[in-house]
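Task: encode each sequence below as structure tokens.

Item 1
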Amino acid sequence: MNHRQDPHRAGGLRPIGGVLNGMTAKRCAPPRSEPPPSSPSTSTPSSASGAGDGECPECKGLGWVDPGAPLGHPMHGKFVPCLACGAVACLHIAALDRHSSHLRQAELQTFDNFSLEGPAAPACPAFNAAVEFAANPKGRWLVIHGPVGSGKSHLAAAVRNHLTRVLGVPTLFLTTPELLSSLREEVGASDERRGTPRALKTACDAPVLILDDLGAERLTPFAEEQLFLLLDSRYRRRWPTLVITNLPLEELPPRIGSRLADRELCTVVLNPAADYRWGDGRVSG
């Protein structure tokens, strides 16, 4: 399958402006990992003198700025991440990348090199939905389901790459089997087994979560419970989530499938494209 085809050539596409272009990572000055102490002063750090060459003119390399809220305002004297350089977001992205799955392969998968020609043409609706989610994921869920090898994981990686490289949005990319394996190891290594496992908390609290291969392994009671806790936490908070699965929603455990089927929150898209790995249009599963 040729992955360098122009996605605009496929009929019916409505790609969001700017999503398929400019996939260049932001360059950030290394910031402080924590905000500076709160100060009663309403002047921002950017007014300080002595900024070195290459430092952000707004935060002077701190990564944080004082928004200048008036006395009595809840944000008075508190610092917020500097949007001019996005340095704090870069730190958060790097932190989540350490927990993410198979990023070495995913780094190469973008919207630009996703083919929509020949047997891959049926992927157009899923491609459009992924582009729209990547452009503005706030308060939205996207579920893409379909057969093995149809390009679903490529689209998930393309969403992740656009969010982190173009928009500077911290995003956690996980495969379900790797998440469950981490949870089993963490719980098995704990003598007390109390509290939320760190891997689960990281996934629950990620600004954007991409969960690939849901249903790829047999869901034991432990696995089903952990996945329900994860998805229910994000569902109740309406935190942006992209789920990739080979299974129809009705074949997932009811507690999980019902969350993914909520049409007020979730967009559910079928990707029926053929398995490109065969090279002749056959679908492998």
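Item 2
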Amino acid sequence: MRIGLTASGSTVDELVAYAKAVEADGFNSLWFASVTAGDPLAAIAITGRATSSIELGTAVLQTYPCHPLLQANRAASVVNAMNRSFTLGIGPSHESVVVRNYGLSYDHPGRNTEEYVHILSGLLSGEVVDFEGQDWIAHSKHAMEPLVHPVPLLVSALAPRLLRVAGTMAHGTILWMAPAPAIESLIAPKLHEAASLAGRPTPRIVAGLPVAVHDDVNEARAAVAGAAAFYDRMPNYRRVLDAGGYSTAVEAAIVGDEGSVTKQLQALFDAGATDVWAGAFPVGDNPKESLHRTYQALRGMLG
């Protein structure tokens, strides 16, 4: 049972202090969002020098604005800077972000991501890549820094095509807002089938959800509603929520007292998750106490 947390802190110094604390408490992983400290790879490079055993990972880096060859070189630079590995979680993001923020086409996200992962996974495996696809071209000879430590690759996959990609070309998938029923009925079967047919090891399924220990369930759901409403409008999240039988993202959040939250987290593992990534959020008039209760409940699951 592996349990991780969202990297927390408004400055790099705070991120480092938090990482050292959760590592000391036995948590398995710390996940850095794409906006962390402006660039999560910079934050990971610094945090990785101050920690030794906790897994650090991105959740997730957007593929569209960064060429896979550049992405691989960035990963190599981070590994070289901290002299240990980290986990590279990537995903295609969403049409509204890619079109509005970057002015790029989002016409073929499945194909685009498959080509991207084909290139990136080869580079991270130490291969020389010569590839010319419909969306990406890469010729890596003399253009790739050597990796002194392996970098596992996870793909944000919420639909069959990318689950196949994650199972055949990567080390698994990293999810957000995927409830246990969706993992059990859609994600785990598709991912395991793809990995098995490709002769690859059992893939990881890192399941991320908002989590809060609080006695008043309605108050807890109200606290997450503002942020979660965003996911209801995104087709990728809408698909996985529908697969899990949830009408809104608020319903998928894991909330309740210690016993209830523990059972809901265990349900993710029972559904096929290998890791749980808890996005702890505060509730009520005493947010520090709320977060402390959540933290302690998660810590208790570490055994």
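Check on item 2: The first strand starts at residue 2 and ends at 6. The CA atoms of residues 152 and 193 lie 20 Å apart.
End of task.
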